[in-house]
Every structure is written in structure tokens, then in C-alpha cells.
Request: fold
Amino acid sequence: MFRSLKQDIPAGLVVFLVALPLCLGIALASGAPLISGIISGVVGGTLVVVISGSHTSVSGPAAGLTAVVLAGITQLGSFEVFLSALVLAGFIQLLFGLIRLGFIADYMPSNVIKGLLSAIGIILILKQIPHAFGYDAVPEGDFSFNQQDGNDTFSELLNMLNYLSPGAVVLSVLSLLILMFWDKTPMRKWILLPAPLFVVAFGVVLNLVFVRWFPELAIVKDEHLVRIPEVKANSLLHLPEFLHMQNSMVWMVALTLALVASIETLLNVEAVDRIDPHKRETPTNRELIAQGAGNMVSGLLGGIPVTSVIVRSSVNISAGSKTKMSAIIHGLFLVLSVLFLSNLINLIPLSALSAVLIYTGYKLARVSIFTEMYRKGWDQFAPFVITILAIIFTDLLKGVMVGTVASLFFILRSNFRNPFVRDTQVMHIGEVIRLELPNQVSFLNRASIKRTLWGITAGSKVVIDATSSDYVDQDVLELIRDFADTYAPEQNIQVNLLGLERHGDRTDLLQFHEVLDVETRSHLTPERVLELMNIGNERFLKGRDYGKRHQAQLIQTAGGQAPMAVIVSCIDSRTSPEITFDANLGDYLAIRNAGNVMTADALGSIEVAVKHLGVKLIVVKSHADCGAVKLAMLGEKSGNIHYVTDQISVAIQACGCAVPDSNVKDSALVNRVARQNAQLSVERMLQGSTYLKEMLEAGRIGIVCAFHDISTGKVYFEPLLKA
Reply:
């Protein structure tokens, strides 16, 4: 705890120094009594954060809420009546938290939240540049595009050129340089003196030097310095007038305050969680409860509404704060400064504070964020940019609403264009078009699905797979039925419908079998089988293996099997041929033994496969880093292992490989022996079976050696042996 306090105390002081002119500006902009802004800052800095446990800091109203406050005071005609609406608004927010409405924050698009952060950063930079140049006509807390002085954010940048202050420019430039290079100096080790705090102290000292020795650079006008007026007793507290609670307008203002403050808070909380280096998650419902309690207290004490604010939160994070204690400390600094330190605080040049905020804005809107969003694609980048522009030209709440609508548009557009996965797979029965429907299929997908189905070439085979769908709209089900019952038969299209009966539709439709039958197998050649094995291995490598409906395949193969190949492979657990060749039930026969050696029972099994089961291709498949080969290279012969290693030893001799133990560490040598051993197994097969040799010479079967790279899953085939 004490270690975190070492960081939280200076962090709280930094946030206080930045927050003080903001609170003053907000209070002045809202027309509320000056001390109300400070009371809101204190309540936001202490009570709210203590209750919520949040790592964000809070302050007076953001731009959107400021407009609501101004309108509310105007409509109700009295600040005291407005305070009663604020107390009621706090109670409504408390109810929002109790009924757990904070979940709304979880549904904000990521590109909109990032746009919000970048927009705040850009606004900070644009709004603080005039202060950095010594033009302070607009209050620090005014972040609206259309300003009180009749200018807007951009025209103010031109207008400031008429009011340059050399001393302010020098001070802000030096302050920015300090902030930029602080981490490269030994000063970064001083936990109790973060860079922003040093910059503020540096600004005060440098301005005093200007006043003493360089009067032409001195910043002496009050509008260029922080201004805390003298606090008068009659301005400390303003009590709400609850006699007006029966006025329906009070309730309307209260509900508006509660909604706007809650939405802005949830948005800001979500945004600040993104920039928190510890990636903590703010409990949103507790935040609403806390803020509701804070607004009730603020209203009772004569304060303006409290809401979460990204500016102060990001400064808090940048200053290195660790816990909520920094926000509590900064609230205490606020009230103490107003009461006792106004003369000292009034020495701080606004240009020094502007440097802190400009640097904070730069970190929120780094160029890398824009490039990152651009690389994610137009559907992410466009809402991101739209959110930024909308916030800059309107306010936070309206901008986020516009950005959310833009994000939803691109989501719907993407969903409309790609509501399913279409893939054309080459199988033993020819090309099969597979349409895999997503988890949720709505009426928005209907047009795209219809365009795809009605665009399928006549004579095709189509699988419409809804086994992964939890919801399929009735309009889409009707469309699929129309296609299968009417359009497909007219176009000689064979259709398999899978998984639709779970959605209240008829039982699955199977117009063609995906498993191999005798009729289809009879038209296959050894070359075609080898091609299909290569295609299956490619599907496996790309992760595009199609979903196997093994229960349906069991039914289809229950009456008999028609395998197209027999594969003799090692017992290695990583080389299962049914998986690596993306096979259906009934496609391949598998014979597995250590080292894929050609034993008598293996040879007999191959003859059964060719003579009685009709396979067209025999594959002898070795694999990389084979353990049986290593045992043979080490001379292992214990027990019955010699039946395996004796055969492999012939391959070792054929390779001219020595037997020392060190050779087993040479992967290239081990793999060379494995390949040689597969070729010797083929030779033993043809030497031991006159029947298989005759079948090969007659062109009835093909034989091929293969090598399986276990590190990639790729299977490499040697040239096919044939007549």
C-alpha cells in the first residue's frame, strides 16, 4: 500500500493541477456558482471512486453533459431547482446500477471506443495549441467545437496568430521537450516527481525568471495564468429546493441528466479500461451506483453533475498512478487549494498545463493507432474515422452514436455479403459445393444466400450444412426448401441438407452419398486416387477439412465398404492417415506397424485389400524422425523388437550409414534411412507376392512410397509405380 502511495500521491497532484483549470472552466461555462465546479471535482475525486473501486478518475460534466446542464438550468429558471433535479438524477443512476444496466458498455464496438480515445486526443491537441501560444480567450474546460467567443476549433487556430505570447511559446515548447525526453534522463527514477509535475513547477520558476530578468517574455496577465478567485462564504454551499419536485419538468431534466451522464460514463469507462496498462476491468454497475451516490451528494452540496472524464483519467494513468487513491488525493488537493493555496496556484502558466495536455492528447491519438486500424480493413477503419470526426464536430455522446451507427452499418454489410462459408471440394465423387451456414442466420442473409444458390451451375452437387447454426430464420428455411424442392431438380442439382431439422424443418435430405461406393470406385484409377490423397492432405494443411457426419457415414457404409487405397504406415501417433488425408469412413484401409516394415501378416492383409476389397492404390508411408529407425540405428534387438529392427538394418546398410549413437541425432540421416526403408518394404512386397506383382503389371493397381513430415503435416509422394 505504501509503495503505491509513493506513486499515487504525485499522480494525484498532477491530475489536480490539470483538473483545477478544467473544473473552473466547466463551472464558468455552465453558469453555475464557481465553487460548484470545485465541489463536483472533490465529490468526483473522492466519494465516487471510493465507492466504485474504479481506477478511473472523474470530474465535472463532459461536453455533452455540459449542454444538458445549461439547458436544465435555463428550463428550470433557478440553480437551486436544478440541484433538486440533480439529486433525483443521482437516485435514478443508482437504480440503473442496481438493475445492472452497466452491461451496455460491453456492447460498444472496439473501433468506436478507439475512435473516442483518438478524438479526445485530437481535441486536446487542437484546444490546447492556442493556450500553448499564449491565447487564452477560451476557458480551459471548453471542449466544444463552436466556442463562446464566436470562433470554432479550427478558426481559433488562425485567430491565435494575432495574439502570440513569446514567453508562453518558449515555455510550452520547453515543457513539451521535457515531457518527450523525460524517460531518457536519470530523472525518470524519481517516483515522487513525475514529468508533468516537474513541468508545472518548471513553468512557475521559468516565468518568475522571465519576470525578474526577461520582462519581454514574462507571462503576467491574469488570463494567461490559472485563476482561482477568492472563495466567499456565501458561495460555498447552495442547497436544492425540493419544493419543486412536483414539477414534471424537474423529473424530465433529472431523467435526461441520468441518461446522458450514465451513457457518457460507460463510454469513458470502457475507453479508459483500454488504455489502462494493467488491463483492469471497471465494474460498470458499481460505477453507476457510485456515480449516482456522488451526484446525490453533489446536488445536496450545491455541485454540478459528476461523470467520468477521459482527460483526467488518461493524465492519471500517464502520471503512473496505481490505485484509486490517486483520484482521492487529487480531490483533496482540489479543495485544499481552493481554500488555502490560491495565491500559489495562480502562479501556474496555462501554457505549461497546455503542454501536459497536448502530450496526453498525442499519446491518445498516436499515428500508430491509425495505421493499426487501417491494417484491420475498411470495415474497422471507416467507423473509427467517422467516430473521430463526429466527436470533433459535435460532442462525445453524439459522436459515439454516429460512430456506432456507422459500425453497425459495416457489420450488417459484411454479414449481408458473407453470411456463410462457400467452398468447392474435390472428392472421389467429383466436385462438391459446400455452403456452411454461420451460427446465426437472419432474414438479412436471405438475399445473399438466394443469389448464391440460384447461381450454382446445373448438374452440380451441393451440401447445405447448418449443423453449426443455433438459429436459422424461417424466411431462410423457406428459401432453402424452395431451392431443394423446386429449383435444384429442374437444374439437375443434387442437394444434401444437413442440420436443418433442429430448426423445425423436415428431416435431413441426402440425395447423394459422400462416402465411396463400389460404382464410384470402379471408375477411379491409381493416378486419380493419388491425386485425391494429395488434395485431402492439402485440405488438412490449410485447416479446411470439411465436417464429417460420422453417424450418417456409418449408416451409409453399414451395407459394405469400397475403399480406394490401402496405406501401410508406422504406428507413430502423429501420423494417422485418416486425419492427414482428410478422409471419410470407408475411404482407406490402414495397416500400421513399427517402421512400416513388410511382415507376412502385413503382406497378407494387403492381398486381402486388393483381391477381395478392390483397392486401387497401395501406399507405403514412412515419416520423419522415426523412432523405429533410431532403434535400428542403435542396434536394439531385445525381445521381439528385432523383427522390426532387422528389416530396417538392411536400409541402414543400403544407405551406407554407420551405426554410432551420435547418428540418431542427425535428423537428415534418420529421414534418409526411413525413406530407404519404405522403398525396401515395397521391394519385399513384390518379391513376396506374385499376385500383387501381376496386378501391378496388369495396370490394375498402383504402388507408391510416401514420406510424412511430422513437423508440418505435409505428405510427399515418390513417383507412382505402375505397369
